[in-house]
Amino acid sequence: MVEFQEDLSVVLGGAAGQGIQTVEEILTRTLKFSGYNVYANKEYMSRVRGGINTTEIRVSSKRVRAFVKKINILIPFKRGVLPWVKERISESTVVIGEKENVEEEFLEKIHFIEVPLTKMALDVGSQLYINTIAAGIVVGIFRGEFSAVEEYLKERFGSKGENVVQKNIEAVKKGYELGLKLLEEGAVKVEVQRNENARNEILLSGAEAVALGALAGGMNFLSFYPMSPSTGVAVFAAQHAEDFGIVVEQAEDEISAINMALGAWYAGARTMVTTSGGGFTMMTEALSLAGMAENPIVIHLAQRPGPATGLPTRTIQGDLNLVLHAGHGDFPRIILAPGNIEEAFYLSAEAFNLTDRYQVPVIILTDQYLMDTYYNLPEFELDKVKVEKYIVEAKPGYRRYELTEDGISPRAIPGYGEDVVVANGNEHDEWGDITEDAELTVRMQEKRAIRKLETIRKNAPLPRLIGREDAKYIIVTWGSTLHIVEEAIEKPGRDDVALLHFSWLYPLNPETKKFFEGKTIIAVELNVTGQFAELLKKELGVEVHHRVLKYDGRPFSVEKVLDGLRGVVE
User: Fold this and answer.
1) For the chain, counts of helices (H) and of strands (E)
2) pLDDT reported for residue 136
3) How far apart are CA 63 and CA 156, in angstroms?
4) Under a CB-based contact definition with an 8 Å cutoff, are residues 533 and 478 in contact?
5) 18: left (phi over 0), alpha (psi -120 to 50) or beta
């Protein structure tokens, strides 16, 4: 008998089209409603069918929010799954499934429990029910509440008719009863404490959190052209457009999408564009227009490996330099990178206030890993979210591009006030009329590129320190690596290692430098060159001593971070 306690990693694998995502949805929701802390993340190839897709679901007595390499229970739906994840399989891994889906070389290396999934599915009526039966087995192994999975199936398949609902309930019940039988027979033992608070918590993905945050921030128009892994944000917004009274527009291309958004901001709307790296490159001319016209714009960029098409369904933190330097000419921008689902919500909301206040592009950097991650969390504190508007009335004599000490000019919108409201992509005077006056050109350039940037920089929040201020080692992270690194440094239980996490990437507050004095600095990044380490050097003169980098399109695992720190942290 194999015994698992406190924290299990369950992985299901198969081909695209075999319903891996459906199983993930059933399990995460059912186990949460049964009172378990859950976490899920998927990996999938960029194919309509074929290849190998997997999903990892962690079920734990405590909150878990990080990807791990280990596999405790593996359910393969086809041959090829075990070779695909062989580096994650250990002698304690339990494989549940059909023998035909387990390569012979693995049979002596694993604990194999043969289950006739195909026969059970055919008894229900079709091989299509294999995934539902597998979900039932896992729910049974955790002694989950059958009523919870039954209710979810009614909700999930209700639109397909009563027969489909009842067939899925029949299938999941067969699996559930088998899971309980495996426990009773001692084939496997699972002991994970329930957390009653988890039942009433929400279960969200990163994509859903970005969309909800934007809505909380007052977004009333979203424009996009589909591009993975960003499309989930637009899809969620479109699904709830009527509920929130917003407009979601799929444009003919990325150039149209960003120009729609610029026009909407000019008219008084609060707008976001969602895209990925390749789509963002097409937007850079309009980004410069926003810089010159000082027109607000929020851009969500979900990173995936490049250049070009790269690995379109994989993850990386490779577009920091892209968004930092995009556009011709000098103009400031703000770059945010949420570290978890909570920050994806709150930062997306705050992005609208920032772009409205400073009249610069605000770019929210996420990645495929964060977009596709789910876990349970408390409901958001909506009283923390304030919609702040900085629009003025265009009274007689209004100067749109007034030269100010802080670089921020008054912004009016057409129809609010008596005077004309001008937006100009050419160099202009204070009223917005085109000018080629040399002295005025210098003053306008300095207003935008120097004074406004300094205003933003001094108001930029400091990074979050997790650990002791007097720690010898400072591990620097940004974006979605937060919880992976946090769990990794918790394991050794050392108090001389602290984590410094950046969710505000640019511009950096000069006071940030105090965190690094007298420390050994280690940057953990999901890219090949250490882009944020280079930014720290450029902006603050901070030299990173060690870099732990990963760039194969897969996220860091907790174990991989620990491996990277060995030999660096003495």
Assistant:
1) 21, 22
2) 97
3) 26
4) no
5) alpha
Q: Is 233 exposed, middle or buried (0-12, 13-18, 19+ CB in 10 A)?
A: buried
Say if residues 131 and 77 touch (Cβ distance below 8 Å): yes
Residue 445's H or E segment, with its range, is helix 438-446
CA proximity to 483, closest of 60, 191, 74: 60
CA distances from 44 to 53, 55, 56, 222, 324 (A): 4, 8, 12, 27, 29
d(CA 376, CA 197): 10
Percent of the chain with pLDDT over 90: 94
How many alpha carbons lie under 13 Å from residue 366 in its C-beta half-sphere?
A: 35
48 has pLDDT over 80: no
The structure tokens listed for 438 are: 């040399």
Q: 470-523, pLDDT tens digit by residue?
A: 999 999 999 999 999 999 999 888 899 999 999 999 999 999 999 999 999 999
pLDDT digits (tens, 9 = 90+) for 77-90: 999 999 999 999 99
pTM: 0.96
**Neighbour tally for 256: CB within 10 Å:** 16
CA distance 188 to 93: 11
| Domains observed in the chain | 3-200 (3.40.920.10), 204-384 (3.40.50.970), 391-459 (no CATH), 464-567 (3.40.50.920)
Band of residue 396 on the pLDDT scale cut at 50, 70, 90: very high
Judged by phi (left if over 0) then psi (alpha if -120 to 50, else beta), residue 567 lies in: left
What phi, psi does 536 have (nearest 5°)?
A: -60, -40
Contact 303, 320 (CB under 8 A): no
Q: Helices 206-216 and 231-239: crossing angle, nearest 10°? A: 60
Q: What are phi and psi of 520, to 5 degrees?
A: -90, 120
d(CA 366, CA 335): 11
Closest CA to 173 of 128, 137, 119: 137
Question: Tell me: the pLDDT tens digits for 96-136?
Answer: 999 999 999 999 889 999 999 999 999 999 999 999 999 99
Query: At residue 331, what is the residue type?
Result: F
Distances (CA, A) of 462 to 236, 483, 500, 513, 528: 31, 19, 10, 10, 26
The rounded mean pLDDT for the chain is 96
Residues 526-556: tens digit of each pLDDT? 999 999 999 999 999 999 999 999 999 999 9
Find, among 253, 264, 245, 246, the residue nearest to 224 by Cα.
253
